[in-house]
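agent: user wants the structure for Glycine betaine/L-proline ABC transporter ATP-binding protein from Streptomyces lonegramiae. delegating to structure tool.
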Amino acid sequence: MSRLQAEHLFKVFGRRPDEAVAKLEGGTDRDELRANGTTAAVIDASFAVEAGQIFVVMGLSGSGKSTLLRMLNGLLEPTAGRVLYDDQDLTALAPRELREVRSHKISMVFQHFALFPHRSVLENAAYGLEVQGIARAERERRAAEALGLVGLAGWEKSWPDELSGGMQQRVGLARALATDADLLLMDESFSALDPLIRRDMQDQLLELQKRLKKTIIFITHDLNEAMRLGDRIAVMRDGRIVQIGTAEDILVTPANDYVASFTQDVDRARVLTAGAIMADPEEALGTTTPDGAVLRTESDVLEAAPAIVTPDTPIVELFTPCSRSGVAVAVTDEDDGSLIGVVPRARLLAVLGEPESGPDDTGTDGGTDAGDAPKILAAGVSKSSGSPEAPEGKVIAGA
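agent: tool returned. relaying tokens verbatim.
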């Protein structure tokens, strides 16, 4: 069941916003509204976030991603649409009820740290608990635990200006964790950091997520960050969500030229996995190895494979075994070790080609969920396509 759902959210600034929503639903262009003094910041945004998932919203400056985030916890009231958290309609709550939800169930980590300079690191980390009315001893204990989680044990008595930018952001993250909220909203939380510190914070977040299993909505303009962190990614353009999918979905099957332009400089070999490009095991059956042995069973495939990997293995790790052998790499289930797919050499090379964008570049369809369409694995390579045709028993597995 989804932990959070956004249903047809609109946010319009300016005169007669309800009238503007009706015009947008009727097909009026965003630029036309702007010419009349009305700004449509978010247009018909819908998505669902599962419990324990990192859902990344990515887009350029002005795409509406931060406005969307602020509607999720009620900092901005939607012009139209609903936000459901654990089936509770947040948009229908009274201000006091909404503040209660924000105090206990939803925490936010800001881009620019938002630390109080006159409070110690421990006091900053405990601030959310103070707002909840937690007794001092208890909030200091929980804040100290949260600081330990983010690697700041021993810095409790320091002042914010004594910390580096990365350490200050860790305090902000600790403050969110101390409240024990199930949902974390992170608005460009790492974008103000230097590249190396930013990557360290990404590592920290991923490590924490393995242990804590929070539900996280993360806002960024950086595609590499989105693909590294996100279980699913929503790409925004001009207030609309134009595509939703996994990193592999967006990289391999971009919805349009706009999404494809984001992905052209991404190192596909480090994002795509064996599970995303693997073929059915049957493709290796009946093929012949370089030494003349025919692979007749799945056991033969496993025995002859130059490497055995799991579905989550990045394809960059497949280059060496594929280059040394004409036999396909075997992909096995992580739990029982059974053969679930193979990666022939031809398939590995094909997936490094340019992605095929979708036919529509207007970005006005309200968002495309790549998970709802058949997955095209690469330019010209799909689940239904196989290795080059040749007589049975003569194909080199991996040709």
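agent: one observation worth passing along. Confidence is low (pLDDT under 50) at residues 361-366, 370-399.
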